Amino acid sequence: MADGASGSTVPRRQLGRYLRELRNKARLTVKAAAEALEWSEAKIWRIETGQTSLRSHDVETMCRVYGAGSDLAGALMALAKETKAKGWWHSYGDVIPNWLDVYISLEEAATALSIYQSELVPGLLQTEDYARTLIGTDNPGVNDQEIERRVQLRIERQALLTRVTDPPGIGVVLNEAVIRRPIGNEQIMADQLAHLLDVGELPNLAVRVMPFVRGMHYGVMSGPFVMLEFPINGTGMPTEPTTIYIEGFAGALYLDKPHEVDRYEHAFNNIKGASLNEAASRKFIADAVKEWRR
After folding, report:
1. 107 and 67, same structural domain?
2. Into how many domains does the chain fold?
3. Which of 63, 275, 57, 41 lies closest to 174, judged by CA?
């Protein structure tokens, strides 16, 4: 990852939003703000989109140009210090693309995740062998040591499921193809599905299956996605806007505009409503484990 992207993503995004709001209230364009600060427009854009950490001095200067009061400036300067903090995953910086760094930071901060997967078991629920098969296939020519580091990163992320302090509530809907498609060999699939049954017993995790017989549903049109929701702060507002994460072959997309979020929230509710309930899903997966072990 580039140095400018180091530090904690969530505080960077929060600080960027506050500074953008201050600039807009001051009725300054990005160009005008850049001229007043003697910075480039690209730097302003990187700051406002949370792509770089900031020094307290820079925040103080921006607040002065934007006409912010001393109390607000002090609070934002304190927030700037948090943008320097690094999460546990930064020790894997050599194998994490920037877009995944953003996602892991948001995942760690979320209070709820709603996940629809049409093709593969989500990373938070994968076994080592299943993850190793996927990562090896996706990275041909990469040496075994790097593959193992990527696998271990994925497994370490799973501590989120059982962390002592406020583990997020997670709702997962898996298309039947996830259960039927062989990834690796029969043993890998059997162990992976058995793992789904084990983690499905966690009080904060619900796993459902969307069987083929349900036919058309919103997931067919939406494709896989994750909806992340965040804690409420002292003012009654979420610390981060609800965000939709869509992972693609060459990168990722983050959506947080209200009309975008509303559409995906409606889609997930439709998908969840059309899927098997938790008890029926457990039986479906348990039967599949037996089939894979024959």
Report:
1. no
2. 2
3. 275
- 16-25, 29-38, 84-93, 111-120: lowest mean pLDDT where? 84-93
Task: Give the residue from 120, 124, 133 showing the smallest Cα distance to 179.
Answer: 120
- Judge if 257 and 121 occupy the same domain: yes
Check whether residue 31 and residue 116 sit in a common domain: no
Say whether both 119 and 245 belong to one domain.
yes
- 6, 62, 37, 82: which is closest to 239 by C-alpha? 82
Clarify whether residues 53 and 99 are in a common domain.
no
Q: Which amino acid is at 57?
A: H
Domain boundary among 34, 62, 82: 82
Residue-number span of the structural domain to which 288 is assigned: 88-293
- Neighbouring C-beta atoms of residue 43, cutoff 10 Å: 17
- Residue 200 CA: distances (Å) to CA of 6, 53, 195, 273: 34, 38, 8, 18
Quick: pLDDT tens for 65-98. Answer: 999 888 888 888 888 887 776 665 555 656 556 5
Is 29 found in the same domain as 77?
Answer: yes
* Average pLDDT of every residue of the chain: 89
Residue 3 has pLDDT above 70, yes or no: no
Rounded to two decimals, the pTM is: 0.77
- DSSP secondary structure string, 163-215? -SS-PPEEEEEEEHHHHHS-SS-HHHHHHHHHHHHHHTTSTTEEEEEE-GGG-
CA distance 27 to 201: 53
Give residue-wise pLDDT tens across range 237-248: 888 889 999 998
The Cα–Cα gap between 222 and 220 comes to 6
Write the single-letter amino acid at 129.
Answer: D
